[in-house]
Amino acid sequence: MNAEKPAGSADEVVLPLIEEALRVGKRRVETGRVRVLVTTDTEERLVRETLRAEQVEVERVAVGRELAAGEPAPLVRREEDGTLVVPVLEEVLVIERRLVLREEIRLRTITTESTVEQPVTLRHQHAEVERLPPVSSGDEPAG
Length: 143
Known about the structure:
Blueprint: E1 33-66, E2 77-78, E3 84-93, E4 97-132
């Protein structure tokens, strides 16, 4: 029972189809600004420190004593006052060889302290942060 009707007949119903499209985008919106000001302060200070220096005083003491047969050579030794004694030996050829203690070298350590003052510059930085309102679209800064 469906009878075909010719196209364009009065009983024909046209249904329009609608489609919606979605386009998503984003844009940057300024919500506020800040201004940061950094300042540097300098301060001169006098630094005082004690420095230590050591120097060695050398004293040569002539001994000129011949060692007895079989006597061992003297060793390096430290005296009670801290002096380091280094024996200097010489072999002398006579008819026989004998060990002769020619001299001792005495090394004494002398410690001195001195106070040194020197100016030193110290720097301190401070930051100030200031909140600013956002720039409206017509007020965009150039550059």
